[in-house]
Amino acid sequence: MIICNTPDVPGKEIVEILGLVKGNTIRAKHIGKDILAGLRQIVGGELKEYTQMLDEAREAALQLMMQEARQLGADAIVNIRFSTSAVMQGAAEIMVYGTAVKLKNK
């Protein structure tokens, strides 16, 4: 499946818009990694535990969005956007959304 953050797919013609598709997940790290990240925050540096958590969350959200698009029979998802929000300390929601489309067969 083609996924892009542009309104069209270069070299392809969109023949049908199937609608909005989305995927979201809420992730948190366990208390041990939360404590390590808190200590690292005091001395500075990358909070690798949270970087990993957000990477995993983005991938999970993408997979959920693509699953929804496949159920609609989409060939591609255009105009994708990511949104992040803190749900509580140490937990974040990642949402990805876009427009599922059918492409012209050549």
TrEMBL record:
Protein's UniProt name: UPF0145 protein SAMN05446037_100384
Family per similarity comment: Belongs to the UPF0145 family.
InterPro entries, A to Z: UPF0145_dom_sf, UPF0145_YbjQ-like
HAMAP family: UPF0145
Pfam families per UniProt: YbjQ_1
SUPFAM superfamilies: YbjQ-like
